[in-house]
UniProtKB/TrEMBL annotation:
Family annotation (InterPro entries): Asp_de-COase-like_dom_sf (IPR009010), MoPterin_dinucl-bd_dom (IPR006657), Mopterin_OxRdtase (IPR006656), Mopterin_OxRdtase_4Fe-4S_dom (IPR006963), Mopterin_OxRdtase_prok_CS (IPR006655), Prok_molybdopt-oxidoreductase (IPR050123)
Source superkingdom: Bacteria
Keyword rRNA processing appears in the UniProt entry: no
Cofactor (UniProt): Mo-bis(molybdopterin guanine dinucleotide); [4Fe-4S] cluster
Record protein name field: Assimilatory nitrate reductase catalytic subunit
Ranges for domain 4Fe-4S Mo/W bis-MGD-type: 2-47
BP term (GO), one: respiratory electron transport chain
One Gene Ontology cellular component annotation held by this UniProt entry: membrane
Length: 701
C-alpha cells in the first residue's frame, strides 16, 4: 500500500493506492496532517484516466496532416531539427515554452532551466498566469512576499470573523470546508461575497451578492465604515504600515451613493459586514479567482489587504490572509522560474545579483542568461507577430483555458512547430506537430507546495508506463538533442531538488533547509526555510516584520475602475465563468473519468428565472450566448441563486462547448492576468438566433 497525492487542487489530499488483482483502488489516508482522511470524488477517481485506455503511451508526429505513432528517437530527432532550423533562421527567442501548475517543483525548476539554458530563450511563462498572478502581485506589493496563505490552515478555526471573497471553497477545495465549519462552531462569523449563492455561501452567516467586477468599490465602503466608526488599529498602522494615511483620506471621501450604485448592494449591508469584521478580535480574509480574474484583479486584492492591515489582522493565530491557491502546485509552480520575469527562489530576472546567483548555479556566464519575456497570453501575440515560431507546451491546454480562444487557435495554427507534452490527446495536443507522452502523479516523484506553503513529497507508486517518460527525463532528452548535456544529467528528482535548494538559497522562497528526508519525517516543511535547523515558517510576520527593505507593509488607495468591456443594448448581461465540483480545469482528465462525467456530462448556462423570461428563453432549452468575440450554444439552468444581471458558465469543456470562445482577452495591467470573470454577452433562443442575419463572425483577431 503506497501513499500518493491527488493531482488536482491545492489542498493535495494524500491517499493510498491499493493494488487489487487487476486494478488499483484508492483509499483515504487517515494520517494526513491536513485533511485527516478526507477527500473528494475527483481525488477518489484520479487514477482512473491515467491508467485508462486514452493515456498516451507513444510519441506522435504529424505526417501528411495526421498524428502518427513514432519512436522516441524519431520524435527527438524531429525536435532537434526543428528547433535548430528555427533558431538559426530567427534567433533563440523564436522558440517559446508554456508550462503548467500541475508540474512538481523539480519539473517546474527544470523547465525554467531548460528554457533559459538549453534553448536560451526569453519566452517562458505558464498557466498560473491565468490563475494566481493577481493575488501574487498584490501580496508582493503589499507584504514583499507571495505565499498564498500567510498562516497555516490550522489557524482558520481561531478566526472570529472570516471574509470569503470570490471563493467557492465547497466546490473547489472541498476538504478545506471542515476548517470553516470548525471556525463557525467556535463562534466565528462567516461572510461571503459572490454574485451567486453557492454551497460555500450556504454555510455563511451573511452573503453579499455583489455585482461582478465591483469588489474594489465594495471594499472602499467597508473601509469607510472601519475608518469612520473607529475600527482602525492605529498603533499597528503607525508602526508597521506605509501609506495608511492616504488610504484613510481616500475612503473618507468616498460617496455611499456611488458605492451602492456600483456594487448593487445597500449601504446598511456593507456597514454591517464592516462592523462585524472590525469588532472581531481576529479576522481572516480569503480571496480567490472571483476577485482576481478581473481587469483590475491586483488592485481588488490590494484593497482587501488594505482592510486586513488597517484592522491589524496579521501575524497572529487566527488573523491573516489567504489567496486560495488553485492548482496542485500552483504555489510552488510560481516560485522556481516558470514565470517570464522570474528565476528560482522567487528571484527577479532583471536584478543583477539575482541573475549572477542563478547563472553561477547553472554554470553559465550571467550575460548568457536571457532577459525577461512576456506573460502567457501575450505569448500568443508574439506568435501572431512572428517573433515566436515554435512553442513547447508542457502540461497545459491553452486552446481551452485561454481567453478569446479563437485568436489563440489562430496563433497556434501559424506556428512552424507546436510540441505538446501531455498525458492525453488534449485539444491543444490535437493541434500539435509533435506530442510527447509525459508522466502522471502516479509515476513521478517530486515535491509540491500546497496552498499553506507546506512543501510536501509525492512519491511514485508505480513505474513509468511503457512508452512514456518522466517529465524531467523528457526535458533532459530535449536538452541533449540540442547538444546541451552539462547541467542536464540528473538521475532522479531528488538530485534536481538538491540543486533547487541551492538555487533558492537566500531568495524570498528559500527552500535550502528542506530535504526529502525532512519532508518524510515532518509530514511536510513550510517555506521559507533557510537552514536545516530551521523549523520552517508556518505563520508569517509574527515579528511584525514585512519583506520590504524598511520592514513595513505597503498600502495604497484603490479607486473603482469601470470595466473596459462595456455592457450595452447588444450585450446587456455579464457572463462570469468558473467551476463545478465534478470537473477540473479544462476537463482533460475529469471528462475521461466515467464516474465524474456521469454526474456532469455537459456545460450549462446558469441564470435567474427573471432573466430567462426577459430574454425569452426557458429552463432546460438550448440557447445561444454571444459576446463580441464569439458564440456558444448551451442548455439553460434556471436558479434564483444568481443575480439577474449575471449569467454563469463553467469552463471545463472544449471545442463548440468552450466558453472561452466568448471571454475577453483584457489583461490586468500589472499581473497580466486575464479577466475571465467579466464579459458582456447577450442570450437568445438558439433557433431564433440561427434565423437571424449572419451571426457575429468567429473572428480570429
Ligand atoms: N472542482 C474543481 N475544483 C477546483 C478547480 C476546478 O477546475 N474544479 N480548479 C482549481 C483551480 S486551478 C483554481 S484557480 C481554483 C478556483 O477556485 P475559485 O476561485 O473558488 O473558483 P471559481 O468558480 O473560478 O470562482 C469563485 C467564485 O467567484 C465568483 N465571482 C465571479 N465574479 C465575481 C466578482 O466580481 N466578485 C466576487 N467577489 N466574486 C465573483 C463566482 O461566482 C464563483 O462562485 O479551484 C481549484 N479547484
Ligand atoms: N473561462 C475561464 N477560463 C479559465 C479559468 C476560469 O475561471 N474561467 N481559470 C483559469 C485557471 S485558474 C487555470 S489554473 C487555467 C488552467 O488551464 P490549463 O493549463 O489548460 O489546465 P489543465 O486543464 O489542467 O491542463 C493541464 C494539461 O496538462 C496535462 N497534465 C496534467 N498533469 C500533468 C503532468 O504531470 N505532466 C504532464 N506532462 N501533463 C500533465 C493534462 O492532461 C492537461 O491536458 O485555466 C484558466 N482558464
Ligand atoms: S481535488 Fe482537492 S479536495 Fe479533492 S481530493 Fe484532490 S486535493 Fe483533495
Ligand atoms: Mo487556477
Amino acid at each position: 500500500m503506497k501513499q500518493t497525492q491527488c493531482p488536482y487542487c491545492s489542498i493535495q489530499c494524500t491517499f493510498h493506492m491499493v493494488q487489487e488483482e487487476h486494478f488499483y483502488r484508492a483509499s483515504p489516508n487517515k494520517q494526513d496532517p491536513v485533511v485527516h482522511g478526507k477527500w473528494c470524488a475527483k481525488g477518489m477517481h484520479a487514477h482512473v484516466p491515467v491508467l485508462g485506455e486514452e493515456r498516451l503511451q507513444t510519441p506522435l508526429l504529424r505526417q501528411k496532416g495526421k498524428l502518427v505513432p513514432v519512436s522516441w528517437e524519431t520524435a527527438l530527432h524531429w525536435f532537434q531539427a526543428n528547433v535548430r532550423r528555427i533558431q538559426q533562421e530567427h534567433g533563440k527567442d523564436a522558440v517559446g515554452v508554456y508550462g503548467g501548475g500541475s508540474l512538481t517543483n523539480e519539473n517546474a525548476y527544470l523547465l525554467g532551466k531548460f528554457a533559459r539554458v538549453a534553448l536560451g530563450t526569453r519566452y517562458i511563462d505558464y498557466n498560473g498566469r491565468y490563475c494566481m498572478s493577481s493575488a501574487a502581485a498584490a501580496a508582493n506589493q503589499t507584504f514583499g512576499i507571495d505565499r498564498g496563505f500567510t498562516n497555516p490552515l490550522s489557524d482558520l478555526p481561531h478566526a472570529q470573523c472570516i471574509l470569503l471573497a470570490g471563493t467557492n471553497i465547497a466546490e473547489c477545495q472541498p476538504t478545506l470546508m471542515p476548517y470553516l465549519l470548525q471556525a463557525k462552531a467556535n463562534g466565528a462569523t462567516l461572510i461571503t461575497i459572490d454574485p451567486r449563492k453557492t454551497n460555500t455561501t450556504k454555510i455563511a452567516h451573511r452573503h453579499l451578492s455583489i455585482r461582478p467586477g465591483s469588489d474594489a468599490a465594495l471594499v472602499n465602503g467597508l473601509l469607510k465604515t472601519i475608518v469612520e466608526e473607529g475600527y482602525v488599529d492605529w498603533e499597528f498602522a503607525q508602526a508597521h504600515v506605509d501609506g495608511y494615511e492616504a488610504v484613510v483620506t481616500h475612503v473618507r471621501n468616498i460617496c455611499w451613493t456611488e458605492v451602492e450604485r456600483i456594487t448593487g448592494l445597500p449601504k446598511e449591508d456593507i456597514q454591517q459586514v464592516a462592523r462585524t469584521f472590525g469588532q472581531a478580535a481576529t479576522g481572516f480574509i480569503l480571496t480567490a479567482r472571483g476577485v482576481e480574474q478581473q481587469p483590475n484583479g491586483v488592485m481588488n486584492v490590494r484593497n482587501y489587504l488594505n482592510l486586513l492591515l488597517l484592522t491589524g489582522n496579521i501575524g497572529k493565530k487566527g488573523a491573516g490572509y489567504g489567496a486560495v491557491t488553485g492548482q496542485g502546485n500552483g504555489q510552488g509552480g510560481r516560485e522556481h522560474g516558470q514565470k517570464a520575469d522570474q528565476l528560482p527562489g522567487y528571484r527577479h530576472i532583471d536584478h543583477p545579483d539575482h541573475r549572477r546567483h542563478i547563472a553561477d548555479i547553472w554554470g553559465i556566464p550571467e550575460s548568457e542568461l536571457p532577459e525577461k519575456g512576456v506573460s502567457a497570453y501575450e505569448m500568443f501575440d508574439k506568435i501572431l507577430e512572428g517573433d515566436i515560431q515554435s512553442l513547447i507546451v508542457f502540461a497545459s491546454n491553452p486552446v481551452v483555458s485561454s481567453p478569446h480562444v479563437h485568436r489563440v487557435k489562430a496563433a497556434l495554427r501559424q506556428l512552424k512547430g507546436l510540441v505538446v507534452v501531455d498525458l492525453f490527446l488534449s485539444e491543444t495536443a490535437q493541434m500539435a506537430d509533435l506530442v510527447l507522452p509525459g508522466s502522471s502523479h502516479l509515476e513521478d516523484t517530486g515535491t509540491i507546495t500546497t496552498l499553506e506553503g507546506r512543501v510536501t513529497l509525492r512519491e511514485a507508486v508505480i513505474p513509468s508506463l511503457p512508452g512514456t517518460k518522466q517529465d524531467w527525463e523528457i526535458m533532459q532528452e530535449m536538452a541533449h538533442a540540442l547538444g546541451k548535456e552539462k547541467g542536464f544529467r540528473f538521475v532522479n528528482s531528488e538530485e534536481i531538488f538538491e540543486e533547487l535548494r541551492r538555487a533558492s538559497q537566500g531568495g524570498v522562497a528559500d527552500y535550502s533547509g528542506i530535504s526529502y528526508q525532512r519532508i518524510r519525517q515532518e509530514q511536510g516543511v513550510f517555506w521559507p526555510c533557510p537552514s536545516e535547523n530551521d523549523p520552517g515558517r508556518k505563520r508569517l510576520f509574527e515579528d511584525r516584520c514585512f519583506y520590504h527593505t524598511d520592514g513595513k507593509a505597503r498600502l495604497v488607495p484603490v479607486a473603482h475602475t469601470q470595466p473596459q468591456e462595456q455592457l450595452d443594448r447588444q450585450y446587456p448581461l455579464v457572463l462570469t465563468t468558473g467551476r463545478i465540483t465534478q470537473h477540473y480545469l479544462t476537463g482533460v482528465q475529469t471528462r475521461r473519468t466515467p464516474a465524474l462525467l456521469q454526474k456532469a456530462s455537459e456545460p450549462f448556462v446558469q441564470m435567474h428565472p427573471a432573466t430567462a423570461e426577459k430574454w425569452g428563453v426557458k429552463d432546460g432549452e438550448i440557447v445561444r450566448i454571444t459576446s463580441r468575440r464569439g458564440t456558444v450554444e448551451l442548455r439553460v439552468q434556471c436558479t434564483d441563486s444568481i443575480r439577474e444581471d449575471t449569467v454563469f458558465v463553467p469552463f471545463h469543456w472544449g471545442e463548440e462547448q468552450c466558453i472561452n470562445r466568448l471571454t475577453s482577452p483584457l489583461l490586468d495591467p500589472a499581473s497580466r492576468m486575464p479577466a475571465f470573470k467579466y464579459c458582456a454577452v447577450r442570450i437568445e433562443p438558439a433557433e431564433a438566433a440561427s434565423h437571424k442575419t449572419k451571426e457575429l463572425a468567429e473572428i480570429s483577431s
